[in-house]
Design goal:
Layout: E1 7-9, E2 22-23, E3 26-27, H1 28-39, E4 45-52, E5 55-62, H2 73-89, E6 93-99, H3 108-127, E7 131-140, H4 141-144, E8 153-156, E9 162-163, H5 167-174, H6 185-190, E10 196-197, H7 200-213
Parallel strand pairs: 5-6, 6-7, 7-8, 7-9, 8-10
Antiparallel strand pairs: 1-4, 2-3, 4-5
Helix pairs in contact: 2-3
Length: 228
């Protein structure tokens, strides 16, 4: 983002412990407290508004330092509110993903965030608001299977692990040996699942060029086509 352009939104929205979940002596409430202390974050996603190349954007960034970037009810709700802000302000939505998937300690409440966030992305498309996703390492599980894979333009960083189920799980379940490079950003690009693989040092300028093509208010209703 441009220097001094970011302003955080929905900072106070954090997960509780709806199931009073525990595994042995470890409680979910305790893990949340430790994650907040060690990461300095309130949740696995930070949302807000900023600018890239002078173009205003609604932006979200996930951080694996907070419980491996897992998506619980608060992460899903923050994403949906960010979408609402983007639609209301006619701001392109930019989301950086990094996640191990749904947060198992919240059970079905975490899994339902997949459908909830997917519906929010549909609202973006209906409103003609562009959505760019940048997949970082790792982007897996329920996050990849929902809002991370539904953007109009999908980018990734080199070498990022991207996919739903992990390589070891697939090999164990199917008893097959998967090819070298399976689920890497480069493999996903070669097979048509990404629009580009971009180095982090080049990402800001790349995004600025994209945003100049997708200036607020210029996108027609429906999906925004990725650049050729």
């Amino acid at each position: 983002l441009d220097a001094d352009s970011f302003g955080e939104t929905w900072a106070g929205l954090q997960s509780g412990d709806p199931l009073a979940f525990s595994a042995g002596a470890e409680t979910y409430a305790g893990r949340l407290a430790r994650a907040r202390e060690s990461s300095g974050l309130g949740e696995a996603i930070v949302t807000g508004r900023g600018a890239i190349g002078g173009i205003p954007v609604a932006v979200g960034a996930m951080d694996p330092a907070f419980m491996m970037g897992s998506m619980g009810s608060a992460v899903g709700e923050k994403f949906c509110r960010l979408v609402r802000d983007a639609v209301g302000g006619r701001l392109p939505l930019l989301v950086f993903t990094a996640s191990g998937g749904a947060r198992m300690q919240e059970g079905i409440l975490a899994l339902m965030q997949m459908a909830k966030t997917a519906c929010a992305v549909r609202d973006l498309h209906t409103a003609g608001v562009p959505y760019i996703a940048v997949l970082t390492d790792p982007t897996t599980g329920g996050v990849y299977a929902s809002f991370a894979s539904l953007a109009d333009i999908t980018l990734a960083e080199p070498g990022a692990c991207i996919g739903f189920a992990g390589k070891r799980l697939i090999e164990g379940a199917l008893r097959v040996a998967l090819p070298e490079g399976f689920q890497t950003a480069e493999s996903q690009f070669e097979n048509g699942f990404l629009d580009a693989v971009v180095k982090r040092t080049e990402m800001r300028e790349y995004l600025a060029r994209l945003l100049r093509c997708l200036a607020p208010g210029t996108a027609p209703a429906g999906h925004v086509a990725a650049p050729a």
